[in-house]
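Q: What would this complex look like in 3D?
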Amino acid sequence: MNKEITEKIITRLPPSPTGLFHIGTARTALFNYLFTKQNNGKMLFRMEDTDKERSKKEFEDNITEGLNWLGIDYDGEITRQSERTDIYKKYLNKMIEDGFVYEAEESKEGDKKVIRFKNPNKEIVFQDLIRGEVKFDTSELGDFVIAKSLEEPLYHLTVVIDDFEGEVSHVIRGEDGISNTPRQILIQEAIGAERPVYAHLPLILAQDKSKMSKRFGAVSIDEYKNKGYLQDAIINYLALLGWSPQGEEEIFTLNELIEKFDIKKVHKGGAIFNIEKLNWINKEHIKLMSDDDFKIKVLEFIPEDIKNKIEENPELFNKILPIIKERIEKFEDIIEMTKEGDLNYYFEQPEYELEKVLWKDDNDLMVLKTRIEKSIELIESVGEFSAEKIKEAIWDYASDEGRGSVLWPIRYALSGKDKSPDPFILCEVLGKEEVIKRLNYVIEKIQKS
Ligand code: GLU
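A: Here is my prediction, written as structure tokens for the whole assembly.
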């Protein structure tokens, strides 16, 4: 009864537009997409918007835009269940005629009628690509409701009809859909639809193995996008939520995933969402970005005041880019960097207290002055102003004096920060003239003190 994977593969992506594009939906979309692409199949996209109260156009747009952003495309036009009422009605009438469904009171008290499915009360057995054989006794489901009226079909019915009419061969969806499967198989049998192959994906769980909820943190793709995660990284991370590749490698592009993904190797157990892992994967993908792409993305996140400074000094900005790349895991981290003042000092003389320039137990400002003067002299002598050459020029002197006593003051004079890149890199980025200016500023401060 089950189709084999050798036939034309048709999958479907049927989100309900009742909320923002969720990571779980994105993961389901991705697994469908990977499976479809690697089998030269077709993926249908439909909005399951029969719930008129909760379905919203803005959510539909959000889901569609999210898929586009991730680079997951589908075949053909998007369809909407809300526009297919007549089709469902035709099936309902036929089912009434054939005696599979009947009109009945919604409840004992009410006078409202609904359409119920006449449950044959039997055991349903289906093969799940991930879970193997699954058995259900449908008798506990009773005569379940499949439509509120001929014009108001409900989820189980619309799914089955759409999958049937779309000739869907594979239903790949979240584990929460597994308990719906027996009902849907009963309806398939009633309308004479062939049974698709099922694959139920493990749920995505929070660290404590609870269900992912708002409490857990960001659950919509938008939130990740806004935090400056790259689409490639999200795709890469989602692929690993419930599936593991063979071998050690974990960083993949979408095309590599299409090649490597194996639906039969998807895990049965819940997939735990691990933000550190996502951050790591994002950083790996940042490293793979071209310089130009990286720069464009940085500019998207950099605050306005720094942007103005960049416009005045684009060359300096180019030099800072590798430092930013080193520091961030996601582009939102740039905002944190600027809040901490970790970018400002590249563009302007930092202010600080003179005492801070002294290394640990050093306390003699006159000795400091001598060391700064000597450092200036050594830095003056550097020809090609690279971190390496600057280091060569200062290293011996610093080693003799005590490295901290020489290198810390340089670093502090240049950045005004306890934490910053090493002094040689700072020198190279700022350029000789600016470095000497900032070192002289320390001397001025000492003289004034
Ligand atoms: N509209 C359902 C959902 O968003 C899809 C279930 C299915 O794949 O059949 O959960």
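A: To summarize the key features: The two ends are 90 Å apart (CA to CA). Residues 14-16, 48, 159, 173, 177 surround glutamic acid (CB under 6 Å).
Q: Very helpful, thank you.
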